[in-house]
Amino acid sequence: PHIYSIYNYFLLSIYFDYITLENILVIIFYGMLVGCTNLVEIVELAHTDDVFLKRILEMPHGIPHPTTISYALQLCDMGTLIQVYLSWREIIYGVMTDKVASFDGKTMNGAHGEGVIKHILSLLTHDSLTTIGQVGVDQKENEIPAAHRLFEQTPSSLLLGLTLIGDALHTHTKTAHAICDVGADYLLTVKDNQELLRQDIQYFFETHTTLNNTATDYQYGHGSTIKTTVTISHDPDMLAYLSHWKDISTVGKIHRVWENENEEVVRRLLMK
């Protein structure tokens, strides 16, 4: 593995004689601004717009390969890179205020070798589709403590006031505390891994219908009608019962029905 890394560094140092790291970052940021979510998409866009890019960048050997860009990114501190991108985006578009972000893990199937981090936990904003935080998850670790590290390492200025959405894996009181501690709000899904909690919320909505606020939306397309009903409650007795969830303010339920297919999904939620 060490020889392989030295070889890659050698190739990259040769390549940097022809294209600078700064130019590679411009290509990456350009792709991110238009919605690209991975290096392959970024390189495909760069090839499509290569006439424009070659006019503003020095690329005598053309658009770099995704692998080359990946090696270049390994030379960068991820936190600093995110801050630079956000500053660059602000110069172009002005201040963009994100309201919601999701934290989710992904396993990189192409990552090999002993000690290589294969699972990445990322924090992605919904409005600007920007990854504002990212940590590796060690094989001996799981996503729950990794999420707490993610919140701690992400700049507080980016988290303040955000609503962070996590799947049922992260529905734990410690995660709710960790999110509140960085000045953010949470929306956590309750599923069968929290069976008693799920039953409590289900029973509450079945027996306290007059205490709830409900909205319904219909979507049509592909020969199917999807009916989505969102129900929330701020009932003080229920919130007191759930007071071990830090600063909880709302319990919710999403009921989605595919009317032409006799299919339905119910999600129960905790929110601050």
From TrEMBL:
GO molecular function terms listed in the Swiss-Prot or TrEMBL record: DNA binding; transposase activity
Signal sequence extent: none
Statement: the UniProt record of this protein carries the keyword Membrane: yes
InterPro entries: ISAs1_transpos, Transposase_11, Transposase_11-like, YbfD_N
Pfam family of the protein (one): DDE_Tnp_1
Source domain of life: Bacteria
Residue ranges annotated for the Transposase IS4-like domain, each copy included: 105-224
Membrane spanning residue stretches: 12-33
Limits of the H repeat-associated protein N-terminal domain: 21-88
GO BP terms: DNA transposition
Keyword Transmembrane helix: yes
NCBIfam families: transpos_ISAs1 (NF033564)
Protein name per the record: ISAs1 family transposase
Organism: Candidatus Roizmanbacteria bacterium CG_4_9_14_0_2_um_filter_39_13
